[in-house]
Amino acid sequence: SSARAATMRVLRIGYSSWNVNVPTVETQTGHDGWPEALGSNSGRSRASSLRAGKSDEQLARTAARGDVAAFETLFERHHRGILSFSRHMLGRAHDAEDVVQHAFLAADRAFRDGKIPKAVRAWLYTVARNRCVSLLRARREESGLPDAGVPSTENLVAEVEQRDDLRALLGDLR
After folding, report:
1. For the chain, how far is it from start to end, CA to CA, in angstroms?
2. pLDDT: is 12 or 9 the higher one?
3. How far, in Å, CA of 33 to CA of 51, rounded?
């Protein structure tokens, strides 16, 4: 079925006194069950074609000065990869979309604060990865699973007794 999955929320980012609308990504379910981007934003906009030759760092510096088209170009370049990466880590498309939104909001804040990383793409993926890890930790806490670093003492006595019984049986076999 070619029913559309949820449309990614419009990312609204304030620049000074005006707002930026980062393009929405419409998705539909592909053959593997994961949402795939439709063609509505897959074409290059005029802004991105004008900035096609600029590096991510140059675009980030330009976006820091309030250039909406530069930020949109960065979004167009990297949102699909970050979305795919996040879906792989989380296993949920809607959580992955939230991670993409979080990563680009963090980028906007950092750029406006003058914190432009040398490797913008790597920095965006690091922000996305950290957010994914936070979401996975929250899921673990919600489900009541024990922390992997803390051994469980539940049923410890029964396990020790069972090991002793097995050792005794092995001793009898020798």
Report:
1. 63
2. 12
3. 34
